[in-house]
Amino acid sequence: MSLDAKIPEGPIDKKWINHKNNIRLVNPANKRSIDIIVVGTGLAGGSAAASLAEMGYNVKAFCFQDSPRRAHSIAAQGGINAAKNYQNDGDSTYRLFYDTVKGGDYRSREANVYRLAEVSANIIDQCVAQGVPFAREYGGLLDNRSFGGVQVSRTFYAKGQTGQQLLLGAYSAMSRQIGKGKIKMYNRHEMLDLVMVGGKARGIIARNLETGEIERHSAHAVVIASGGYGNVFFLSTNAMGSNVTASWKIHKKGAYFANPCYTQIHPTCIPVSGDHQSKLTLMSESLRNDGRIWVPKKKEDAEAIRAGKLKPTQLAEEDRDYYLERRYPAFGNLVPRDVASRAAKERCDAGFGVNATGEAVYLDFAAAIQRYGKEQATVHGHDVNDKELVTRLGKEVVKAKYGNLFQMYEKIVAQNPYETPMMIYPAVHYTMGGIWVDYNLMTTIPGCYAAGEANFSDHGANRLGASALMQGLADGYFVLPYTIGDYLADDIRTGEISTDLPEFAEAEKEVKDRLNFFINNKGTHSVDHFHKRLGKVMWDKVGMARNAKGLTEAIAEIRQIRDEFWKDVRVPGELNEFNQELEKAGRVADFLELAELFAKDALQREESCGGHFREESQTEEGEAKRDDENFTYVAAWEYTGDPGEAKLHKEELNYENIELKQRSYK
């Protein structure tokens, strides 16, 4: 069965403006009688809640943290893309559109990506007006830097904490509406089910995480903006609380889940140090602007470094393999994330890894420090041959650009990255897959929308760096506030939705029954015991490289872990209290179902594209090899009662503005 994405007719550069001009509106007086629930208050949810309330709707916003300021959006360090062309280096709306589609390995929907590029410039203006402290050049203009997969500088940034500063901007906009009573904020609340009345999304069941109370909340529409599902791997760069529950609950109520196997492996993470770890730390991709990635050319040097007999700073330049610069001269260290990640894995698998486990490469700033130092020495009329002075000046420039990242690395690894190269290795980071949405961001459930990382719509099989913040804010500030009105125009006479309806009672009973099961099950193993086992299967067999044999084995192993989980999980504590083990139990139960669909999706997609690398489908040079004849579609899965029996629906992808061709960054 094919899906209707409701893409407007006409030229791609006119689709969005024409669509906005022709969709229905809700007048200001009628907005006051319409309620909208927003689940998740990161950049997508926070900007959506603020915008919808500013327009006059009554918004109920839910986050499981104690404050929206703790949303995982703060972890996006490096920047946000926008086609402003401030650097006069050839950027444009079309170029951003092209780079994003190519970076996603030609597996994203053209119309959505062009709209994203189109509204990107508005995002920067919005955030500057909110007071976001973007970096500026000497003359006062906003500064830009480059990110992977592009040959222009279009990334706006606030040192190494861009996500946090943007989130504070959205939070300030939310706070204004909370103060006016237009947003009712539910902190420390978790959505545990979607309530449907008459085939439409009409509310949610939520748990107050402080008291354990189960609550019913009604609305005329529900927006899911709860982020991605990278924690299905247990070890990831995601916050420990990040989960799939909100998305999975609406999936089980009828929302199709699209491309779950499209998961991004980020190349610049601090390597795993042992079994004690519960999460990994990301070093921003912005570091690849100035850091050079390398491993020793000789295995004996790599072995000596691993044994502690040789320091990286002692290795001569001619004995270093800057493998990204060697393999991809046109883009060098700024190839897309999936390409850089696989290249690092290939070098480490070949025996050139540089930490004790052999799973790390170097990210070296020595050359950048010298380059910036000489530039500053020249500017100030100092001797460029004074190495000590040049080094000091160079370190000051690097500190101004990346200082908090260097500080974070030193606190975790206990090594000074100004003096010795950072060690990095790929790790699970972002999920391009998610809930299927049409051009209006509506799921296959009428009245249920998905925004930001929770939906699948913009990044194809690989997300370019600095595009997550762009998509989240584009959806929340500039897309959803327009498109949701077209649906809500039918609800101006509906009136308040009662929570006494039998559908609410039934959903509440299902939630309570599940929670009671966890509390009363007399198992012998903790929730984390099962989550770690799941994560190992996912990383080993559904991780950076996949093959049919491993995926088939993974599906069987995931089922076995899930069966054992339901028989043998132990959740201490009580139901009606603050109980984080109970929270985790519900989230891991959902991960155990998602994981099987994830592997099933990866197994049926018999091609390599972006972050989905099937070993059976690669070029002679080891690059991802697509099969455009058979797989140029979005795989949207319908829940049928068992993730292993999910039904596949296809949205065919038509490329009318960009030529389909094998990616090359050489």
Automatic annotation (TrEMBL):
InterPro entries noted in UniProt: FAD-dep_OxRdtase_2_FAD-bd, FAD/NAD-bd_sf, Fum_R/Succ_DH_flav-like_C_sf, Fum_Rdtase/Succ_DH_flav-like_C, SdhA/FrdA/AprA, Succ_DH/Fum_Rdt_flav_su, Succ_DH/fumarate_Rdtase_cat_sf
Domain Fumarate reductase/succinate dehydrogenase flavoprotein-like C-terminal as annotated: residue spans: 531-665
A GO molecular function held by the record: flavin adenine dinucleotide binding
Any Pfam family hit: FAD_binding_2
Principal subcellular localization: membrane
Keyword Heme annotated: no
List of catalytic residues: R337 (proton acceptor)
Enzyme class (EC, first level): oxidoreductase
Record's keyword terms, sorted: Cell membrane, Electron transport, FAD, Flavoprotein, Membrane, Oxidoreductase, Transport
Location within or outside the cell: Cell membrane
Residues of the FAD-dependent oxidoreductase 2 FAD-binding domain: 35-469
GO cellular component: plasma membrane
EC number annotated for this UniProt entry: 1.3.5.1
Membership in a protein family: Belongs to the FAD-dependent oxidoreductase 2 family. FRD/SDH subfamily.
Record protein name field: succinate dehydrogenase
